[in-house]
Amino acid sequence: MDGRSWLLHPGGTRMPVCGSDGAAFAFIEKSNTRYAVTTDISLGQDAFIQFDFSASCSVTNSCYAIELEYSLDLGLHWQPLVRDCLPTSPDCSSYTLQRLLVADTYNKWGRVTLPIPTYARSPATRFRWFQQAPFDKQQTWALDNLYIGDGCSDMCSGHGRCQKSSCVCDPEWGGEYCDESVAPLPSQLKDSFSRAPSLSHWHLVTGGKLSTVCGAVASGTALHFSGSCSRQLVTVDLNLTNAEFIQFYFMYGCMIPPSNRNQCVLLEFSLNGGINWILLTEIFYDLYSKPGFVNVLLPPAARQEGARVRWWQPTHEGSDHSDWALDNVLIAGSDQRAQISDTFGGVALPNHERAPADGTPTGRIGLLNEGEEESTSGIYTGDLDETTTYTATVSDHWLFSEDCAVQRFCSSPDGVMVCGNDDGREVYAVTHDIVPDKGWVMQFKIAVGCSVPERHAEHQVHVQYSVDFGVSWRYLVPQCLPADPRCGGQISQPSVFFPAQGWKRAVYPLTDSLADTCVTSLIHTVQTCTYSTSQKFGHTYSFLGFNLFVLFSTL
């Protein structure tokens, strides 16, 4: 950084810091005053300010912010460059916070790029980075690679820095304006938060951690935001050209709920690396006091290459207050597949498993005898016991399969998908979407409880489907009683399974009304008491276009 660019910089010194590339402007001296003031600059319509910023280098977990201000009168008066624009503020085209440079967001080097608003442009504008006193001496910060001007078109698209009026692109981006990704970007994002958020999915997580304090938001652990500083979750850059929706489970107030609209969570997207954010939806603060499913359709403006998405809570009342939780995030399109076939053992299905060879009437359930079970599942010959988990994981046919694993269950001679838990939470597995044709069927084997003689009504496994990307669900076979006028005299039991001994095969012809329709399937349990191991359910040889089975044509 050129020393001629600065008028004053008490408390600052030039030195390598926080792994910087060469000397940076570091404010680490144990003085009572820390700020930096630029010289006066003439700013035009396309001017922007760009710099690298780092706070604390992870030395402290305390929450503090550095003010970024401007002056039009040679430093006599100072105003914030970015103003608070919150959901309750009138006439806001987008939401912003004055408190921009926050320690937990920049606990390592990060680039800040801001278009300079009209009110800050003049023939002689100067800028100031200012740390409010009193402050802890460990609350350090640093600047590097400052640029103020209009020499780079589109501010290098948020994927590069402006240097001598040309863009120096980040390693993952190229082109004159850093708007061309070097490698293909992910076309979807899926996270059940069963493990720590991955860098391959998330660009930034602040104020959130994996927790079960909210109970089952969707299932298992959720990402719970209750931190005392900033709270946001930002995806990596995605290719959303074929995406259609953002879906997730959400809950407010696991500890202390939000009290006003400015404490709501905003779902936004950016097409320029986070420089500008555009609102998708506001998750109202007085809703979702219980876990709920949120489905947001992507507008055409968001369906672009290089888009990123964020969940952001502008304000809150401190640690554990105004908290919220997120689970089972899915950003994708319909992902229409020709069929789904899953044996859970990595071996192709035997020919006699591609049709109901046991003579089971279609649309009904038949109990398999022991010999038949052995003849249809001789896939793995290694030494396994009931608790052995296969090295194979649940396949990518499944969108979400929390609390499910591929292992032996109920005397199965090879791997099946076993779902269940020990704390009474609902368990489910959801397939990718599929577009069935006329004459298709869904076939699978299932064992519920296996050796439990009692037929507890609360231990049910429900088989359902959705034609609206999971917003609503219907039973694959509805309940039809003689007195029900909607059933036209037909009688049927719903597609629900209860604890029973042994394995059952289910074969369901798909109605013609589902042909050429994008279908998702769901298998889930409902229970009111604690699961034991014998109250789990398992699937093997799933043939469907829905959960845990396989859809295939009988033609």
TrEMBL record:
Compartments in which it is found: Secreted, Extracellular space, Extracellular matrix
Main subcellular location of this protein, as a coarse class: secreted
Xref: Pfam families: EGF_Teneurin (PF23106), Reelin_subrepeat-B (PF21471)
Keywords: Calcium, Cell adhesion, Developmental protein, Extracellular matrix, Hydrolase, Metal-binding, Protease, Secreted, Serine protease, Zinc
Entry GO MF terms: lipoprotein particle receptor binding; metal ion binding; serine-type peptidase activity
Superkingdom, natural source: Eukaryota
GO CC terms of this entry: extracellular space; neuron projection
Protein's UniProt keywords contain Chaperone: no
Ranges where the EGF-like domain occurs: 167-178
Keyword Ion transport: no
Biological process according to GO: cell adhesion; central nervous system development; neuron migration; proteolysis
InterPro entries cross-referenced by the UniProt entry: EGF, Reelin, Reelin_subrepeat-B, Sialidase_sf
Cited function: Extracellular matrix serine protease secreted by pioneer neurons that plays a role in layering of neurons in the cerebral cortex and cerebellum by coordinating cell positioning during neurodevelopment. Regulates microtubule function in neurons and neuronal migration. Binding to the extracellular domains of lipoprotein receptors VLDLR and LRP8/APOER2 induces tyrosine phosphorylation of DAB1 and modulation of TAU phosphorylation. Affects migration of sympathetic preganglionic neurons in the spinal cord, where it seems to act as a barrier to neuronal migration.
Subunit structure: Oligomer of disulfide-linked homodimers.
Family the UniProt entry places it in: Belongs to the reelin family.
Protein name: Reelin
